[in-house]
Structure formats: structure tokens, C-alpha cells
Specification:
mainly alpha; 9 helices; 74% helix; elongated
Length: 277
Amino acid sequence: MAGEWLAAIVTEMGGRTMDDRTFERIGAISAATVGLLSLLYAIAYLGITPPDQRGSDIDKFFRSYLAHPTGLRLAAVCLVLSGLVSGAAVVALVERVLRATGREGRSPTSLTWAAVVAVVGGLATSAHGLADLVGVDKLAHRYATGDAAARAAVAVAHVAPSSVDPRGLATFAAAGLVALAVGLALRSTNPRLGVVGLVLGGDMVILFVANAVGIPVLVLLTGGLASVILGPIWWFGIARLLLADTSMPTSMPASITVDSGATTPVRTPAAPENATA
């Protein structure tokens, strides 16, 4: 009966599914936020930040930073904020993938790993951004006001790997591996977004390697591709997927049948037994 079907919908939306939809909306907002922050990071680091702050000359770096700190500061803020919200987007996406593939409650090891790494890696990315926001400023002023020994110490501290995210292990490598794992899982339900995840994941891993071994040209190439093109497409695609409402039943109960190609017969009531011809 139609009334029973409508009651089933109301019951379904009033139960666990409504909670899932709320978290999916939070995940969608988080994903869209990361996409916007990715574009803003690219503008800040590649556009606003002077070239001297992307080079290897430490003296030019600090002098340029003290004169024009806005670009790097804005980029650091983008890392802090994106790291805080990216985990929620990935967790919501993983839950959506599991429901779409009929494996809800039976998460594959790869997706469980991806969800955990996304949250932990996101927090490490935030810590990385916060360290840059506060630490670089302190080092720059110490370099400008210190003697030769102080400047030498600052130079060593500046080139040393980050204690919370060495060589971008979380920001680049972990994020890339998460994109690869989720992209593989999306191939069966959303092939195009899955391919974007795979390409982005590979690009991020290459970016980590280039940053670790020190290949500036490759860092700028892969980093620009990730922050300007692949990253926004990936995160906006996740937001769109999570906003798609799948809470409505895809089929009606067995007691209701709809055949758009056939004419429903109309049954006329039987004549009373005492009716005359």
C-alpha cells in the first residue's frame, strides 16, 4: 500500500539514516571547504609569495619574508584549516561508498585504513601549518636581529625537516595514499571521480618524493597541479557526491507495482444479485 511505503520512508528518515545524512552534509561542506582552501593556497603560495621565498637562498628568504609575509602566512592558515576538516570529508565519503556497494558495517581494510590516516594525517597537516605560521615568523626576526652565530643556528633550523610533518609526510604522502585508496574504491560506483582520486594520489606521492630529495621544479609542477586543478576537482566532486540524497528508497515495496507501459485494468463492481436485466 502507498500508505505503508510512505510510513517506511518516514521511519527510515527518522532513524539512523537521518544521522548519516547529517554527517554527510557536514562532510560535503568540509570537502567544499578543502577545495576552496586548495585554490586559496595556490594563490597565496604561487601568486602572492615572492619567488625569493620559494628559493634555496636563506638570506634572501628571510629578508623577503620580513618585507612580504602575507603569502606564506595565508598559505599556512590554509594548511591549518584544511587539515582540520579534511578528515570529516573522507570519513563521510567512505561511509557513502560502503552503502553504495552494499558493504555497510563491513568496511574493507583499505578503506578503514584510509579513514584513519585521513583524520590523523589531517591533524598533522594542521600542526605543520601552525608550526609554519608561528615558527617561520620567529626565525625570521631572530635572523634579522641576531649575530653571525645566531644566523647560522637559524639557517640550520630552517632547513631541518619539520618535527610534526617531515618533508610533507602527512601533507603530501599520506594524503596521496588516501586519495589512491579511496579512488580505487570509487571505481565501481563513480568511475570518473575514482580516476581523479587515482591521478591526484599519484601526483601527491610524486610531490612528496620531489620535496624529500629536493627537486624544486618538480615540486612546483606537481604542487601546482594538485592545488590548482586536481585537488579542487577531487574535493568538489566529493562534496557533490555527498550532497546527493540517496535516503529515498530506490524501489517501492512489493505490494505496489508500477508499469508505465501498461494500462491498469479497471474492475467494475459486480451487479447486485436482485438486479433485474
